[in-house]
Amino acid sequence: MNKYLLAIIGVFLALCGMVYAFDASQPGSYDFNALLIGNGVLAILSAVTYFMVTGALKSDNPNAFIRAKMGSTMMRFFLCVVLFIGYAYVHGKAGIKPTVFMFLGMYVIYSILESAVLSQKGKKKA
Fold this sequence. Notes:
Layout: H1 3-25, H2 32-57, H3 63-91, H4 97-125
C-alpha cells in the first residue's frame, strides 16, 4: 500500500480519536456525527487529490503539475465551503462555532500533509 494512503489512514484515525475525546470531555459542545462525516470527506478528498496530482507529475507538460495542484486545492476548498453552508443551513447559526472550527483544523491538517508529501514528490521528479 502507498505510504501516503497509510498516512491518511493514520491521520483519519487520530482525528477520529481526537473528536471522540473532545466530545467525551465536553458533551454537547461538538456535533460528533458531523465531525466524523467531515473527517471522512477530507480523507477521501486527500486520497483523490493525491492521485490527481501524482498522475500530473507523470506528464511531460511542466504546467500539468501546477494545474492539478491548484485544481485539487480549489476542489477541496469549495467542497468544504458547501459543507459549511449546508451544515449552517440545517443547524441554524446557534452553537455551530466549535464544530466549524474543529472542521477547519482538520482541513488544515490534511492540507499540510498533502502539501508536504506532494512537494517532496515534485522535488524528486525535478
